[in-house]
């Protein structure tokens, strides 16, 4: 099959500006999800580390449910549960933006909590024993000794999660949140260049994720600097 | 490297400043300065000539189409301005049910299962005004001359999920392999690439698409079906006051021929 590609829509300022605006919102959404998701993720992560079954099992339950169900189901369900009336902030319909963001936060927090837990567990037990025998309290041990070292383990996977979230934001097109795939949908409805549009959309996502993973590699190398002997 | 990043970020800021309004899925129409309230209508604007998002005269996105004109007429009758929300088709019925929006016009056919959730107005497209067609690629026109030729297991037919055309595909071509998806544009593209052999849609939609890039299609007209209801406006269950007003507006628009005029106008652009 021969396909004649026609990228003329890229020279149309209107289409191009729609795509770039969508790209921007995608990045903003993913950034919000990772930053606030990481903060939220500390709760289930520490709950799961607890030895008390009544504290750890709800966290296990939460993480398993979120990880075991598709993002689309979560978005649809949260949209139904959080019945927010239509109101506008900056031209954006918060009635669909807020449920979307909440779903994304919940989703990313579950994944990140596992990353954090893994990072903490990977810190050598001798560190805790040494800190405790030096007279540090349990809290001090965690926040002054274990967690700083855990961050080094967490960082590479966190970058990975950021990349995943960037790609997953494409679900929001259904909610009418104007991220990249929504804008693609608008251009698509009045242009026959569908294949070309998908190629450009893919490249734009790549333009976000590729520099990001490169940047993450750099930061990671900086963090590992002290490990080299 | 730093200079490049600087240029890149300035570019982004300019784009954002240029038109943040284009990242909105809500479109407001001020019909009359004296109206101080809004009536909210929801649609899934990827279905020209009925509803479609285009660049407006002021450079910003706007939504146009026959359904939008009907919504304006309804809003005018209510002495309110119009606010149009664009969303995925799946969310529309739910939004009306929960009262988040006042009514939906999105080429929705009142099926029994939808009637359980929301109320429908009378149909605003009569059976005479909307003809149902099957599109085939012009290269295959010798193979598929009538609807009977399509009723074979080797034929792949397409239709939109939840649409009346999905039912037509099941009735007219039960032996064919059906590809039922939400996205009309995807189906049109599949037909263009010959990934499907035929596409069930309606005449006005087919005309609009053939006028805007898909020249290679040929229409086969379908016989009208008994008991087929046209598209209708959906409102929250029990909201008879609004429903009565909408029915009045539809009667007037059908009587003075406005809907036919709009159909001709928007299927050409």
Can you describe what's shown?
- The complex is a heterodimer of chains A (about 230) and B (about 270).
- Chain A is mostly helical and about 230 residues long.
- Chain A has one domain (about 20-225): MetI-like fold.
- Chain A contains 8 helices and 2 strands.
- A two-stranded antiparallel ribbon of chain A has the order 1-2.
- The longest helix of chain A is centred in the N-terminal third of the chain and has 37 residues, at about 15-50.
- Chain A is globular and about 70 Å long.
- In chain A, about 35% of the residues are buried.
- With about 270 residues, chain B is of the alpha/beta class.
- Chain B has 2 domains: about 25-125 and about 230-265, Periplasmic binding protein-like II (D-Maltodextrin-Binding Protein, domain 2), CATH 3.40.190.10; about 130-220, D-Maltodextrin-Binding Protein, domain 2.
- Chain B is about 40% helix and about 20% strand.
- Chain B has 10 helices and 14 strands.
- Chain B has a 6-stranded mixed β-sheet, sandwiched between helices. In chain B, strands 11-10-12-9-13 form a 5-stranded mixed β-sheet, with helices on both faces.
- In chain B, α2 (about 65-75) crosses α9 (about 240-255) and α8 packs parallel to α10.
- Chain B starts with a helix and ends with a helix.
- In chain B, about 45% of the residues are buried.
- Classes of the chains: A mainly alpha (about 230), B alpha/beta (about 270).
- The interface of A and B includes residues 17, 88, 93 and 190 of A.
List its salient traits.
heterodimer; A: about 230 residues; mainly alpha; two-stranded antiparallel sheet; about 0% strand; globular; B: about 270 residues; D-Maltodextrin-Binding Protein, domain 2; 2 domains; six-stranded mixed beta sheet; five-stranded mixed beta sheet; 14 strands; about 40% helix; about 20% strand; Amino acid ABC transporter (chain B); Solute-binding_3/MltF_N (chain B); signal (chain B); amino-acid transport (chain A)
